[in-house]
Amino acid sequence: MKTFEYDILCFPMTRKTSLAEMRTCLNQKGAEGWEVVSVSTSEFANVGHTVFLKRETAPLGAAA
Fold it and tell me: In which region does residue 60 sit, left (phi positive, over 0), alpha (psi from -120 to 50) or beta (all else)?
């Protein structure tokens, strides 16, 4: 059975360069094997984006 690990990133959209920084970060995560599963936009307190990622892990007991 496949197993996964998850990560959550938050990107406040407070500066003009925020989207470029978001793209750079997501490209780095992609190079590490992470895949974006969902993006949520929030207007509570500070407009920004929360990104949910996952990547497959080795099954328990499998050799690395």
Answer: beta
Three-state SS at 58: coil
Give one DSSP letter per residue of 2-48, joined into a string.
-EEEEEEEEEE--STTHHHHHHHHHHHHHHTT-EEEEEEEE-SSS-E
**8 Å CB contact between 21 and 29:** no
Token code pair at residue 45: 């307190």
Mind listing the pLDDT tens digit for each residue in 9-47?
Answer: 988 887 777 888 999 999 999 999 999 999 998 766 567
